[in-house]
Batch of 4 targets.
Target 1
Amino acid sequence: MTHPLLDLPPLTADRFASIERRVAALLRTGHDVVVMQGEALLPLEGCIRGAAGPGTTALNVITGPYGQTFGDWLRDCGATVVDLAVPFHTAVTAEQVGEALAAHPEIDFVSLVHAEAATGNTNPVAEIGEVVRAHGALFYLDAVASVGAEPLLTDAWGVDLCVIGAQKAMGGPAGVSAVSVSPRAWERFAANPNAPRRSYLSLLDWKQRWIDGGRRALPHAPAQLEMLALEAALERIEAEGAEAVMARHARAAAATRAGALALGGGLEPFVHEARDAAPVATTLRVPAAADASRLVARALAADPALPLIAGGGALAKEMIRVNHYGPDATEDAVQASLAALGAALAEDGAAVDLAAAKAAVTAARHAG
């Protein structure tokens, strides 16, 4: 008995390469793009291990948990790491990055997360890229949460290593990811004796066996279902238009923030300034007497499909995240999420105004 998801013809090298070209167009890059067969942590770690070693001095910008992870990887590679940490309720500035670079002229690698979905902030990559480019350091960017939700101009911003995943704003699968690699980054990898080789983490293997060979023979069997899902996600973005997709996410973010403020019940935006808030997810701080995990569990009991999650780790009791990305970047998803949170808060005796929240969401959504 045939099955449409199991009995598929092999994915050809030409089709794999065509998907990479479409990713490159989305990233606005003329650099090499490699689609990797795993969740985005694969190229994120592969890039750091390929570029960093005992002779590296890295500026690691920390605006959330992924920045902390990158610092751990860099130190594990033997790099000297200068951490630039800012409160998670804000964003880093180009001025802060510039000051760190001036204080440590030996820095030759800068790692940054574009949007931290876990904390709900986003960083001004265009301005930071200008500062990093003037300094001459290699620029590594985690754009997993930002791609599709906000502008991402890889080449114009001077990004040497831009890593994306498809599972958030692109509305695609979690099991496949991609990275654009500049010529400078390839040179860094090739000159690094500690760069992974003959390894699943090795981008150099992809270059030597795939790119340098003219993309005619894949180095291993592709993750076919994930590749087809990535292709479908790209097709959907192309059909809607990248600008329209980004506008939809921006409207959802504005509507969520406005609706939460109007709802009351002690909810407050975790990211203080709207300009620092990521369009992919809105994080909310719950009242001191409340428990975010319990509120989310109660809301999800009423509707398990809601895009709600409690904060991770130490933030589990105080933060709620509304994940308005991909197919959930809609007014309906925002309205349903806030209504469920309002009902959960009301059960705890909090004073909420569901009608005001609904009106604020509609007004903000259409104002954008």
Note: The radius of gyration is 21 Å.
Target 2
Amino acid sequence: MTDNIEPAAETKFHALGKGPTFHWQVNATTVDMAMPLSEPRRRTIACEPQSVIVDLNRTALVVIDMQNDFCAKGGWVDYLGADFTPDRAPIAPLQKLVPALRAAAVPVIWVNWGNRPDLLNMPPNQIHLYKPAGTGVGLGEPLPGSGAHVLEKDSWAAAVVDELAPEPGDIKVDKYRISGFWDTPLDSILKNLGIRTILFAGVNTDQCVFCTLTDANFLGYGCIMMEDCCATTSPDFCTQATVWNVKKCYGFVCRSTDVLSSLADAK
């Protein structure tokens, strides 16, 4: 079968894999698995309880659940009669941070509820979480007024709020549990990108953000929660406990301004 291969084609290497530092170079006779690492782009972020030096080449931003159902009028939280406005607090700082990270070639990953219409991968305990009495509008059911299906993939309800609309170069991951790692390709994507440090943002601080962050910690990632880019409709003590536990057990806490300051540092 190699008789028809031109000699030049046999020696030319071709890249297999999407990761900038995690791919193979192959030709007809050789597979080169020696993946050179790029020169680190070191930046120091002022965090608590310690400052953290990151490599921008191995850092990603993960934004969780900044969706209409949680953050917009007419969304699910609004329908339930709760005040959704606290969940909008991350919008303004993210509007400044996300473009700066894109400009620094840091991957921006949007991790959002995007359930199957048939909910076939959703066990009863998860459905109960959002419909505890078995009545009312639960996962996948139409919201009164708009008719958008709650947290269903490709519905208005599950879309990222207009103020933070993802760009074509961003990465989108659908999730089906409070943690963004469970039953999703998030870990594989991060590993293929060569990511070792994750900046966390989104809602709700004490629920989906915290659970995704703790799972990332268990998987070996360095975790930095940007406090002003996270929000929750839960009582204040839930945020206080989350921040305390992140600093104590699971990673580091900073503000988006600390990250922006580090990006401006050319050292």
Note: Residues 8 and 48 are 55 Å apart (CA to CA).
Target 3
Amino acid sequence: MALKKVLVGRDGRVRSGWKVAGFLTLSVASVMVAAVLIGMFAPAWALQDGQPWPVVALSALLIVGVCALCLRFEGRSWADEGLSPDWRRLRQFVVGLAGGVALVGGLAWLLMLGGVLYWQPNQAFTASLLVSGTAYFVFAVLVEELAFRGYALRRLTEGIGATRAVALLAAIFGGYHLLSIASSPAVKSGGVELLWTAAGPLVGAIVFGVAALRTGSIALPLGLHLGWNWTQWHFFTFPGDDNPVGLWTPVISAQYAGNPAPFRIGYLVAMALALVAIAAMTRQPRDRHPVTLAAGLP
């Protein structure tokens, strides 16, 4: 009886927090299962170029299945969650994609004008790497948006409100990145580098979360996230990073070597601009706004 009170709210339904915990647990399990299966059965050609796109592709497929299972359990449809494709969602995705590319391109241009860095063509870049790298980022971003800005965000919004839901999932998103890349030599020593490993994605997650709630769909944040990550790969992947260098190899000017401040400030400014643009694009009367409706506010 006591356990039932913990799990079930006064309305007789499972509490939102438990739904989200179950969903995220199944999502993590999906990624682990995908990694094991691909590691056991994938042909060598599928893992070439250092881009494990089959793992994230299978993970995305499994998490779609997890979403379907959770929605069926609650008697909800894909349309209820803003996950059904239509032309409006496609336009939002394209706008987000263009915005992500423009933000990284603009940041690169300003850093170049400021003498912070310049680029050299990556002679080792191949068409095969372009295909495998693009596939990797498409599916990796899809996994993250399905897990953090889809079902989980909407259930938390119903339970604790939009602001707290975005903040909580952003913190979890930052922790997820901390666990996944904190073994990199650049952050092993801890300190500010380790803090930024979580803080950078946390800021991005706030922007993506706001975009998801204000549009009632993951289409806009999916496009923005993909456009940013894919373009960042080409302009800001340094030799020695986890991902192979993209089309251009960045070379930092001597006076800025070992000084990440310009990059971090530029990133924060870009995210702030994205947030302002999202707010302007999605401004609606309060009684029709997806955030208001999702949170059950009058």
Note: The first helix runs from residue 2 to 7.
Target 4
Amino acid sequence: MKQNNILYLLGSGRSGTTLLATILNSTNKVLTSGELHQFYTYFKNDSSCSCGDSVHKCTFWKKVIDDLNLPKDKIEICEKKQNNEEGHRYIPLILLGKKASPDYVISQKQLFNSITKHSKKQWILDSSKYIGRFLLLNQITGFNIKGIYVVRDVRGVINSFSKQVQTPRKPLNTIFYYLLTNFFGQLICWTNKNIIKVRYEDLVQNPNKTIETIYNNLLNSETENKTLNEEFKMPHIIGGNRLKTNKTIKIKKDNAWESIISRPKQILYYILCLPFMIINNYKI
């Protein structure tokens, strides 16, 4: 059986992870599978893959599900274990030494073994973003896991969450969420040599350089895709934002916040998130 090589996206939502994951899927060594912290929920509810088919009928996920061959009660146990062990509130406990439960370990080994079996690529990309999940997966023997910590100017994140689609958030709620996820994200990035940081703004400005950096510094390889296409086919993904319903995705810089958010509010949001804005070299 192939080794489970896992590439994991960390960071806050609305930071460009779907775009990055889709671009990486177009390269020669990475298969993007979506937000796998939702897999057992999708499995139980027979929810839709990004291709439009239910996961039980999807040409990719059907093979994974058939391999797992789990009864309904076991699926519910797997789902409950993920929900009860991966949440943000458990991050401090995990950092202090809390271990993943045996059932959790088994459920994740089964899942990644099956995905790896049906993939022709070397790395499986999990874009769950949950830092607790990254830490737990990192405990599992036989997993070679590396991370990409994705950051974005908080004002861009606030503007994206303000749209009345898919879990909108108010600005102050978004700022609290941003501070929480980036506090732990930056901490893990500083202390784990197998994580690199990618700024959304750098990705959309020079995607070729970003992908080359990921391959060279994280995957210890070179990508065969020296020049990326302008349009990328959406892979078979679990979870993800509203963009997953598109058949393709294009690289397009979203800086609408510069004109939508008033200048006083831009300054206020910047100050409220000051440490991370400075660390990540964002200008006021």
Note: The mean pLDDT is 93.
